[in-house]
Amino acid sequence: MKVSVLSSGSKGNCTYIETNNHKILIDIGTSSLYVEKSLKSIGINPEDIDMILITHAHIDHVNGLRVFSKKYNPLVYISDKILKESNLKIENVSSEEEILVKNDVSIRSIRLSHDVTDIKGYVIEEENSSMVYITDTGYINENNFEYIKNKNLYVFESNHDVEKLMNNPKYPHHTKIRILSDKGHLSNKDSAYYLSKLIGNDTHHIILAHLSEQNNTEELALSTLKETLERKNINFKNIKVARQNEMTELMEV
């Protein structure tokens, strides 16, 4: 399996995953043109994308979906609730949920918690490769831990530093409360706590994602995670941060 986060942040999200038999996108929250150019830069023909997984209906996750799907006609996996909330007209869709197994690839959807009618995280596995994709959630139900523990790669939300958020004069109080709630976003501390519980001997990579431009920095997100892991005597060094307009390297998982 190969993975590159093409874009991550409040202005648009998209991640590319390549398996033996599939070329997959999770979300298209940027413009279709940006996704096309990004894919071509790593040698991928956009026409070869055969599956798109949609996490939820917010514009930073579906902004380019209609144009891309109309142009290239991949199969879009999107729940009925997400499709209705997004108000998008997509031709080639499937509402199949929970577990999809196709050509030796297993894709499990995980129910998350955000201020939308429906939101998904994903676990993708094939042969000896596995990854977890979780962003835009206020918490993770521990009932899902069995499905997301000890995977090879985690693309994981580390949205905000609580102190920076609370001291930000540009954000009204009700917005701060929403972000901090169970239907908001994972803070750096939340993210570090969950990752310290989830990663294991088979975990090779962590990519911190969906960082707030206003209420976080890469340095804060990284230091919070590293300090949490060190306190728990977990020796893990291979941590990267996904950015808004800069792809991560195409990595082998």
Give descriptors for this structure.
seven-stranded mixed sheet, alpha/beta, 14 strands, 28% helix, 9 helices, 25% strand, 253 residues
Structure overview:
It contains nine helices and 14 strands. The protein is of the alpha/beta class and 253 residues long. The radius of gyration is 17 Å and the shape is globular. The N and C termini lie close together (5 Å). The mean pLDDT is 96.
| Helix fraction bin | 25-40%
Please work out how many helical segments DSSP would assign: 9
Morphology call: globular
How far apart the termini lie comes to 5 Å
CA radius of gyration is: 17 Å
- Element-level helix/strand string: EEEHEHHEHEEEEEHEHHHEHEE
How would a crystallographer describe the biggest sheet?
Answer: 7 strands, mixed
